[in-house]
Automatic annotation (TrEMBL):
Descriptive protein name: Gamma interferon inducible lysosomal thiol reductase-domain-containing protein
This protein's GO CC annotations: extracellular region
UniProt superkingdom: Eukaryota
Alphabetized PANTHER family for the sequence: GAMMA-INTERFERON INDUCIBLE LYSOSOMAL THIOL REDUCTASE GILT (PTHR13234), GAMMA-INTERFERON-INDUCIBLE LYSOSOMAL THIOL REDUCTASE (PTHR13234:SF8)
Pfam families listed in its UniProt record: GILT
Listed GO MF terms: oxidoreductase activity, acting on a sulfur group of donors, disulfide as acceptor
Keyword Signal in record: yes
Main location: secreted
Keyword Iron recorded: no
InterPro entries: Interferon-induced_GILT
Family: Belongs to the GILT family.
Keywords, sorted A to Z: Glycoprotein, Secreted, Signal
Length: 250
């Protein structure tokens, strides 16, 4: 992937907003400054693009992580038939994370993808969506929209249509992809691929619940699903783990 040119066409930077108001008194300016620092401290975990978008359990939630390749039909089937129906029912009980499978190398900007560099770009687009819109309802919907037409990834029209359908800003995603001549987004992909490798995940799609493999989809077949391969089975397991995390028992 050529790191010297943006992965998608660059858009013009917006003109700076004119400064219409000035505080004349020192104490008023100091108040605004302190308030701004407080806001940043409260919201840092939501706005920092390097923040882990899931994977760590909280007091009453359990980690649910899905490892995919963006141009893989098994990723589409896994999300559509298993993960999304479950998330529609128990998204409030999990900390969701989407990770990608590939291979780190000393060339190709450090990452190779099984289905070529267009898949690497598809992975990056979906990572950028997750970084900019941490709510799984938004970025998982965008990802599913892309996966339905995985053959066309990363066509600009597809990305624009999926962004519009799920309320995401295409220009923001575009900026994320091309930021620092692509090195920023490539770093996210490299970290994601490294994570999957460290967890010994090589199959797209692999679903991990509570740090354990819950199910895999390979060549259109659901495998290694000891708790069942239907969405209601995953919902049941998530509810049971979340209740246990709260200290509830039947």
């Amino acid at each position: 992937m050529d790191s010297k040119s943006p992965l998608l066409p660059r858009t013009r930077s917006p003109s700076p907003m004119p400064r219409r108001h000035r505080f004349r008194r020192f104490h008023a300016a100091a108040f605004v400054f302190v308030l701004g620092l407080f806001w940043l401290a409260v919201n840092w975990q939501c706005t920092d693009p390097t923040h882990n978008h899931g994977g760590e359990a909280t007091a009453d939630k359990v980690p649910l992580e899905v490892h995919i390749m963006s141009k893989c039909p098994d990723a589409r089937d896994c999300l559509q038939k298993f993960v999304l129906p479950a998330m529609q029912n128990v998204s409030d009980k999990v900390v969701f994370r989407l990770s990608f499978i590939g291979q780190t190398t000393d060339s190709d900007d450090g990452v190779q993808c099984k289905h070529g560099q267009t898949e690497c770009l598809g992975n990056i687009l979906e990572l950028c969506a997750a970084s900019l819109y941490p709510d799984p309802k938004l970025y998982l919907g965008f990802t599913m929209c892309m996966e339905r037409d995985y053959h066309d990834i990363p066509a600009k029209e597809l990305v624009q249509d999926c962004a519009l359908e799920h309320g995401l800003d295409f220009d923001k995603i575009n900026h994320c992809v091309s930021q620092d001549d692509g090195s920023y987004a490539m770093g996210m992909l490299r970290d994601s691929v490294t994570r999957s490798a460290d967890l010994n995940v090589t199959t797209s799609c692999t679903v991990r619940l509570d740090e354990k493999v819950r199910c895999t989809v390979d060549d259109g077949v659901f495998k290694n699903c000891p708790g069942g391969k239907k969405p209601e089975d995953l919902i049941r397991d998530i509810k049971k783990l979340a209740d246990a995390a709260r200290g509830w028992t039947e």
